[in-house]
Amino acid sequence: MKRIKIVVAGPYGAGKTRFINTASEIETVSTEVELEKPTEEKKTTTVAMDYGRITLDDMTQINLFGTPGQDYLDFMWEILAKGMKGFVFIVDSSKPESLAEAKNILSSFDTSLPHVIAANKQDYPDPVPVEEIRSRLALSDHVPVIPCAAIEKESVMDVLEALTRSMDLEAASA
Ligand SMILES: Nc1nc2c(ncn2[C@@H]2O[C@H](COP(=O)(O)OP(=O)(O)OP(=O)(O)O)[C@@H](O)[C@H]2O)c(=O)[nH]1
Ligand SMILES: [Mg+2]
Predict the structure, then answer these.
(1) CATH of domain 2-168
(2) Which among 170, 174, 146, 143 is positioned nearest to 158, based on CA atoms?
(3) How does residue 156 score in pLDDT terms, banded at 50, 70 and 90?
(4) Alpha carbons 4 and 24: distance in angstroms, whole number
(5) What does the alpha-carbon distance between residue 8 and residue 88 come to, in Å, rounded to a whole number?
(6) Where are the domains positioned within the chain?
(7) Residue among 7, 12, 17 to mutate when testing ligand 1 (max atoms within 8 A of CB)
(8) Who's near 69: CB < 8 A, 6+ residues apart?
(9) What percent of the chain has pLDDT over 70?
(10) 7-41 pLDDT, tens per residue?
(11) In Å, how far from its chain's centre is CA 146?
């Protein structure tokens, strides 16, 4: 059995935990704590990591590791990124003002590894379009930007499929 480590990264509140919870076939390991000032949309935050798993076939298992989004926990990014084969970078399409910070965070990841951008929260009213996200993050043409709503299984699987395609795991998932 081949076990492939994929990291799910991105800014605070972009939907990393939700993405892994939706994708995982096992109950996820989470490290959520309640926010001191919860909002209607966000009541908890990740303080260490998320973990979930997906079996592609008899031979391949994807292990998903989610990062915490808060600045003061950024030391966890390098720890979680160790040994990853690729990553999903999640941005919040409902908050255009978060994209500058997203670009900054992306620059601290190894973009020579296979990665895709999940333009998340596309189910919100007036989300930032995919092409604008591409230009705001100054992405190379070969980096896929996939529209996503992490509340839907089909949508998160589209993102993971785009990543496994760019990792050349197609044969494994066939
Ligand atoms: N409607 C909708 N809600 C979403 C989507 N993605 C995430 N959410 C919600 O947005 C909120 C924040 O999502 P989280 O998964 O906690 O975000 P996170 O990136 O893990 O946040 P931190 O770990 O605190 O950085 C939660 O209430 C999610 O349920 C989406 O695509 N659509
Ligand atoms: Mg989280």
Answers:
(1) 3.40.50.300
(2) 146
(3) very high
(4) 14
(5) 5
(6) 2-168
(7) 17
(8) 10, 11, 12, 13, 14, 16, 45, 46
(9) 97
(10) 999 999 999 999 999 999 999 999 999 999 999 99
(11) 11
Neighbours of ion ligand 2 (CB under 5 A): 16-17, 46
Tell me the pairing of strands 60-66 and 2-9. Answer: parallel
Look at the block and give the residue holding tokens 């066939």. Answer: 174
Torsion from C-alpha of 68, 73, 78, 79, nearest 10 degrees: -80
Q: Which residues line ligand 1 (CB under 6 A)?
A: 10, 12-18, 41-42, 45-46, 68-69, 120-121, 123, 149-151
- Distance (Å) of CA 138 to CA 92, 108, 134, 141: 16, 14, 6, 9
Write the pLDDT tens digit of every residue in 85-116: 999 999 999 999 999 999 999 999 999 999 99
- Residue 155 clears pLDDT 50, i.e. is over it: yes
